[in-house]
Amino acid sequence: RSQRSSVLKFQQVEEELEVMFVLDGEIRKAGDHIEVFAKLVRTDDGLELWKDNFDGNTYGLFEIQGEISSNILNAVNVSNFGNKKSRHAVDHQAYALYMKGQYFEYLAGHTNKLRAYSAYQQALSIDPDFALALVGLSRSYTFRGPFHGLPREESFQLALDAANKAIATGHQLSHAWCQIGWLRVKYAWDWDGADEAFKRSMQHSQNNNLCYGARATLAWTLGQSLKELRLREKEVELDSLRLSGLSALGQTYIRNGRPEEALELFKQIIEINPDFPLIHEKVGLAYLVRGDAEM
Fold this sequence. Notes:
Order of helices and strands: HEEEHHHHHHHHHHHH
Radius of gyration: 19 Å
Distance between the termini: 46 Å
Strand order of the largest sheet: 1-2-3
Number of strands: 3
């Protein structure tokens, strides 16, 4: 790949995601052992600011993530995030807490999601206008409510308020509008309103994996099975480590009579988090659909 094509790629990322830096790299896995190659690139000119590789196992992903975050913060003067008027200056501690919330949200499960909620709250206590943390908090309210006995209407309003505040910041609008659309699906059952919100999200970025996942849920709700499958596959293509996305695609494969592909995805989930909610029941269902009732 030429240097010019790399610079153009990162400039496209800058325009679509409103970011000044991109963390690029790859993960290699053999059994429980993983090797992570990472580099930090400035989007406007493709300059490589930092790179390193890390060895560990699947149970130490958070430690590796923390080490990478520390190196990134050392390589970048985070106050420079505010140099362009279109961007919000992100406090490095708030960003680290946001990443912590993302990690626990990716793992899923009751305890992990409550940890994610706490991390987002802490990030916002430092930076109340941190758009991504506001969107994360909005998502948190959708699963925190049932666990803590909050009435459905109260959970919805708290989630909606956080998402609307994210929109008001003028930053990360793809994520904010995606969350509005998701709330319209989950709480308001407003299919047309949800579709409109998802379209607005996609106008800001064509690479928001969460938007593809939310649109897939809407397609499933409306009985559009082929559209759901296409959107689920795109969601996983954009983020192959988000366990809830892998799980949802696996369930979609089962509904479409493709249990072998579902089992491959479920095995990936178990390798990362053996306690992922209902994952073993989903494995059993895949075997049942395959005709292996005794597995």
